[in-house]
Prior knowledge:
Elements: H1 18-53, H2 62-75, H3 77-91, H4 93-111, H5 117-120, H6 123-151, H7 159-167, H8 169-187, H9 191-197, H10 199-203, H11 205-217, H12 223-230, H13 238-264, H14 271-277, H15 287-315, H16 317-339, H17 344-360, H18 365-370, H19 378-392, H20 397-408, H21 412-430, H22 445-449
Helix pairs in contact: 1-2, 1-4, 1-6, 1-7, 1-8, 1-11, 1-14, 2-6, 2-20, 3-4, 3-6, 3-19, 4-6, 4-11, 6-7, 6-19, 7-15, 8-15, 13-19, 13-21, 15-16, 15-17, 16-17, 16-21, 20-21
Amino acid sequence: MTAPPPQGFTPTGTIASTTDRRRVVFATVVGTTVEWYDFFIYATAVGLVFGQLFFAPLGANSAIIAFATVGVSFLFRPLGAFLAGHFGDKYGRKVVLMWTLILMGAATALIGVLPTYEAIGVWAPILLVLLRILQGISAGGEWGGAVLMAVEHAPKKRRGVFGAAPQIGVPLGLLLASGVMALMTVIAPGDAFLQWGWRIPFLLSVVLILVGYYVRRRVEESPVFTELAARKEKAQMPIIQLFRKHTLLVVIAALVFAGNNAVGYMTTGGYIQGYATNPEGPVGLERGPVLWAVTGSAVTWLLSTFLAGWVSDRIGRRSTYIIGWILQLVGVFTLFPLVNTGNVGLLFLGLAILTIGLGFTYGPQAALYSELFPASIRFSGVSISYAIGAILGGAFAPTIAQALVQATGSTTAVTWYLVGMTLVGLAATLLLRDRSGIPLGPDHEAEQSVSPIYGLAKA
């Protein structure tokens, strides 16, 4: 005989209080914004300063190596996802979110005080990469917990909107990172920016982490996990169960995200910022205007991400994604022709068009992923799928783009690379059934375990 759900919770795993729901949404937005600010401030600095200050002795290859350090962190995202998935399915979503926030903030602040190559030689890039690895481990564990806290608290018909809360943390983090960097180009122009101005955004992470920690402490644990714990139905080895029964689903879900992530990392990975401000390149714009253009595009990304979550509650996750892939293709084809004009206004237009498609292929992801996996292994499923998708998509997208431009002398090859990744995401989406509204609680594990992949009856 199973224990009854705790007082205040429904059998479907939603919490009764509207106030608590709002608190969860606010906490997931604040927490993920802080996490992604930390993650993106590194990528922004790569395109602007790290190549000069930490990798200069590598000469012509310094830019490629610097962008590669962005991708290195992705290789450690699965480690963060495995750890967070295991502990999140055994001990709860909340405790994992607290530790990922602290780890990310500590790594980011330490980058802000790191000596350059001129000061300590080869130890400078080594320490920089080690701190970036810690950021990757944190990012790998963060997303799944934030998503499940939002979606598992949500009413069944509003999971898309609730799930969009942690998703808008990405454009908010980009907006904050680009905005602070742009402000520092005004406060510390020219050589002052290279000497000390770039460090301030990293050191500000300490304040942001304290705010995020305070907000997250006030949030209740996910009701689905609370039910699992009360019934003593927590998975003992969730990762083993995940891959024993759902390996193909993990791969397909990862490819959905890869199609979005590769394109998104043209800005969040710092590539467009570095390409547009390269004084020896075809564009040659100033740092400040480019950063303000990226900041503005983060607003359009935020709005389209939230809108996509809302739309997915009305027409389903799958249909929303299909619309998003079409919009993303339009954005990919228009991006570099507009950037290459050398006009800041047209650069912003290109980024704004691109981010509409990015929002529609990212906003529904939290709800989509949460509805794909059974409750007892859901944290592991969403975290690991996300981490693998990040490696296949955004990990080395800026590095690949830089290498293609250096090899061909134009951005045409980059455009076709991004088109290919978008089509991969579309194909993966078409392989999945729409499971919008499926019950998420532990009472419905049998229904949740039926494969959402077309052509398969069981996972």
